[in-house]
């Protein structure tokens, strides 16, 4: 999971340095070389090549032998420690991430990292199932950079539907968190939608917005996976 989600495309400060160089031209005088002594004699064809120095060879016991690199990304359930995060499955744009519990009742969420148009990691969203009968059918935790203008709220809209505003709950050193809920009707739109747009406002540029695309490809299958093993209560917000 990314440690720093602090990137805004509109608020990046680009530093440029200019290096000046001054060409120095020396006046030269063209001279004509003498007609003789200008031919280079090649070495004989049977000349013996020069052997490398004796100390150029490194003893075998001083050579570094390659080792297997540690796997990149989250571990599997078998390799995860108790209370550790692991990857349980992939559903196109989504990951099923779970926390390994001592009693085997691993709570899971559906996770996606959100990037800007330049490929910079900006925010992340984790969805979790909720017990039936409540106003919200599914919950979500959205983490954005600390430079977000909190009073502008978080805006989420599915496809061409009118977006909704959600307040931010709290901030940590890792980012600002919005804990939100989607109704059953909104959950249905997520399942049949193509993309959602998550919009935030940079604090340093309150007249600008950063719109992030949330892919809904694989959402239906991923949600079914976490719902089948959903705990009775919502899991705690993950750290970036």
Note down, in words, how this protein is organized:
The protein has a domain at 114-217: Immunoglobulin-like, CATH 2.60.40. The protein has two helices and eleven strands. It has helices at residues 184-192, 219-227; strands at 85-91, 94-99, 108-115, 121-129, 138-144, 154-158, 164-166, 170-172, 175-182, 195-200, 210-215. The protein has a seven-stranded antiparallel β-sheet with strand order 1-2-3-4-5-9-8. Strand 1 and strand 2 form a beta hairpin. The protein is extended, with a radius of gyration of 30 Å. Residues 1-36 have low confidence and may be disordered.
Write the layout of secondary structure elements.
Layout: E1 85-91, E2 94-99, E3 108-115, E4 121-129, E5 138-144, E6 154-158, E7 164-166, E8 170-172, E9 175-182, H1 184-192, E10 195-200, E11 210-215, H2 219-227
Antiparallel strand pairs: 1-2, 2-3, 3-4, 4-5, 5-9, 6-7, 6-10, 8-9, 10-11
β content, as a range?
A: 25-35%
Largest sheet: 7 strands, antiparallel
- Total number of helices: 2
Tally of extended strands? 11
Question: Please, what is the CATH homologous superfamily of the domain at 114-217?
Answer: Invasion associated locus B (IalB) protein
Structural class of the secondary structure composition?
mainly beta
**Helix and strand pattern:** EEEEEEEEEHEEH
The averaged pLDDT comes out at: 78
Query: Shape, please?
Result: extended
Helical content class = under 10%
CATH architecture label of the domain at 114-217: Sandwich
Predict the CATH topology of the domain at 114-217: Immunoglobulin-like
Spatial order of strands in the largest sheet: 1-2-3-4-5-9-8
Instruction: Provide the low-confidence segments as ranges.
Output: 1-36
Kindly provide the name of the CATH class of the domain at 114-217. Mainly Beta
Rounded to the nearest angstrom, the distance between the terminal CA atoms is 6 Å
Rg calculated over all Cα atoms: 30 Å
């Amino acid at each position: 999971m990314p440690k720093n989600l602090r990137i805004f495309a509109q608020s990046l400060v680009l530093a440029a340095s200019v290096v000046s160089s001054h060409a120095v031209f020396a006046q030269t005088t063209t001279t004509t070389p003498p007609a003789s002594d200008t031919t280079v004699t090649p070495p004989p064809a049977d000349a013996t090549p020069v052997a490398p120095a004796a100390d150029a060879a490194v003893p075998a016991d001083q050579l570094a032998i390659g080792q297997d690199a540690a796997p990149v990304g989250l571990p599997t359930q078998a390799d995860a420690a108790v209370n550790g995060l692991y990857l349980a499955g992939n559903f196109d744009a989504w990951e099923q991430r779970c926390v390994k519990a001592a009693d085997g009742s691993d709570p899971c969420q559906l996770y996606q990292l959100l990037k800007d148009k330049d490929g910079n990691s900006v925010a992340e969203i984790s969805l979790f199932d909720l017990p039936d009968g409540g106003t919200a059918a599914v919950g979500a935790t959205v983490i954005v950079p600390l430079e977000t203008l909190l009073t502008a709220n978080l805006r989420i809209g599915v496809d061409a539907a009118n977006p909704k505003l959600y307040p931010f709950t709290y901030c940590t050193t890792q980012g600002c968190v919005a804990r939100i809920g989607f109704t059953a009707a909104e959950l249905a739109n997520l399942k049949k939608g193509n993309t959602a747009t998550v919009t935030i406002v940079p604090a340093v540029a309150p007249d600008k917005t950063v719109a992030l695309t949330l892919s809904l490809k694989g959402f239906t299958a991923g949600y079914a996976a976490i719902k089948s093993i959903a705990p009775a209560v919502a899991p705690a917000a993950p750290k970036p």
